[in-house]
Amino acid sequence: IHVSQDSPLVLQSDRNVTVNARNHMGQLTGQLTVGADAVEAQCKRFEVRASDGGKVLFSADEDEIVIGADRLKVTGTEGAVFGHSVETPHIRAEPSQDLKLESPTRSLVMEAPRGVQVNAAAGDLKATCRKELHLQSTEGEIFLNADTIRLGNLPVGSFSSSSSSSSFSSSSSPSSSAPRQTIYELCACPNGKLYLSPAGAGSTCQSSSNICLWS
């Protein structure tokens, strides 16, 4: 069936339009059905190629679905939903858009046998959580490299040479004539909790500090 040049070919039916392909034995090998509700293709492999007939834009068979376009754009408000795993070498947000990885109800896990790198080349990197933030290295070390490292909101203990324990700074009220303390020592309790102690000629950290006992 063919038409003259620059003329359309129209196949019209009150029901479905079906195109069948059969082998030399008469067995059905491929079928394309255009219906009122859907277009269905039954074949071993379905392909959508570019206008020049070379590049495969979309292909589907029993084993996999391949999208060969330069960009896959999902415009749905809920984005793309994957029932199982997602495998990709690169995740990138659109220009001038933030990239957000979120698991609203469960945990978010990123694993790689050769390491996971998170880099903010031109901005800040911020990690926040509702409960506890754990940094753990099973075989190596945790290395903090920066011009300034700050530990905010650490409790401050007060040291007394006549006492075997130190307490919170709020429990002591130094006289107005006492010099203002500006240098502190960073102390670590046996359980790993950190606190500040007023620096002296020697170490003022004490394992029996109330800060360690009350943590």
Automatic annotation (TrEMBL):
Pfam families: Sarcoglycan_1. Keywords: Cell membrane, Cytoplasm, Cytoskeleton, Disulfide bond, Glycoprotein, Membrane, Signal-anchor, Transmembrane, Transmembrane helix. Its main location: membrane. It is found in: Cell membrane, Sarcolemma; Cytoplasm, Cytoskeleton. The keyword Transmembrane applies. It is a single-pass type II membrane protein. The keyword Cytoplasm applies. GO terms for cellular component: cytoskeleton; sarcoglycan complex; sarcolemma. One of its GO terms (biological process) is cardiac muscle tissue development. Belongs to the sarcoglycan beta/delta/gamma/zeta family. This is SGCZ protein. It comes from Notiomystis cincta. The lineage of its organism: Eukaryota, Metazoa, Chordata, Craniata, Vertebrata. The gene is Sgcz.
